[in-house]
């Protein structure tokens, strides 16, 4: 088993219903590092449209921002990437598969359920007409574990992670629905090996302390909104993703009995609602209603389009799709080589885009973890190759 990985991938053919595990050799990880580059390399041997999820070498580790698993959609030959965050990056990392690739179209609606290096396709026609958040509740109840992470498909185009939406700007949710896979569920209970655990932990702890000092008091979703977008409704508390010092998200009341609070991650939609002058006491409830159907707002959104989203008039609304290959999930953060490096390493692109950390210590950390020297020049070379591909 290579350090920081399990050394295995999962191939799922929905058309035949087959689920096959394949081994990945150490040389593959040395060449591709991980994350988006690892996914891209494996997709070269896959024909047609597909979806994939992979982990970076630092996904789920103790370094600052090491919280991202990497989702990918490929449609008409074009790959796009989005981060899977909160606690799900860690859980995916430890479910036993470094990459999953899903192709084909299922004959009946199903979901993929992964845990402890075991994967099954579960027939689920009863989930087909549920909205995204209800799918997560049902799967967790059926499997008897409230800590299961659930990526839910949607009619609006964007997938939800449990009860968190607004991070999928690559239309993963729509692609899943087209392929008749309503959800991807996973639970991480495994362990990866670290070559020099003592030095790895010592350096990541120092990096975490330095990152906290660099935040300068930034906290909650208000800290990443523009000055002309002020939230005047109460926030319950702030939180960060696993292994991240930056609490850039906030909980707020929705006014919806079945989901009384939601985690505000979707900075882009909040900016749109502020610019439309939606009353303060309606912003969170409105966001919850469109998120449940899988919508993200952009600068073209209007009150009429929001009404169509809430009422389920899906044909009247164009789904949000990022213009970038690597989505930063954050307005004002453009695609760059640094963002591509984040997607390779398994670091949150919002963290890298807003706080601009020096990535040299991450390379040193990676060297401690793998037992091989990995330079920033090597990471840059891989990122530039990925951007050109």
CATH class of the largest domain: Alpha Beta
CATH topology of the largest domain: Aldehyde Ferredoxin Oxidoreductase,  A, domain 1
Output the radius of gyration.
20 Å
Q: Please state roughly what percent of the residues sit in beta strands, choosing from under 5%, 5-15%, 15-25%, 25-35%, 35-45% or over 45%.
A: 15-25%
Q: Uncertain regions: pLDDT < 50 for 5+ in a row?
A: none
Number of folding domains? 2
The largest β sheet comes out as:
6 strands, mixed
The overall pLDDT, averaged over residues, is 94
Overall helicity: 25-40%
Supply database-style keywords.
389 residues, alpha+beta, Aldehyde Ferredoxin Oxidoreductase,  A, domain 1, 2 domains, 5-stranded mixed beta sheet, 13 helices, 20% strand
Summarize the entry for a quick read:
The chain has 13 helices and 14 strands. By secondary structure, the protein is an alpha+beta fold.
Description:
The chain is α+β, with helices and mostly antiparallel strands and 389 residues long. The chain has 2 domains: 8-192 and 324-388, Aldehyde Ferredoxin Oxidoreductase,  A, domain 1 (4-Layer Sandwich); 221-316, no CATH class. The protein is 32% helix and 20% strand. It has 13 helices and 14 strands. The protein has a 6-stranded mixed beta sheet with strand order 2-1-6-3-4-5, sandwiched between helices. Strands 8-7-11-9-10 form a 5-stranded mixed beta sheet. Strands 12-13-14 form a 3-stranded antiparallel beta sheet. Strand 1 (8-13) and strand 2 form a beta hairpin. Helix 2 crosses helix 10 (337-345), helix 10 packs across helix 11 (349-355) and helix 10 packs across helix 13. The longest helix has 18 residues, at 197-214. The chain starts with 7 loop residues before the first strand and ends with a helix. 51% of the residues are buried.
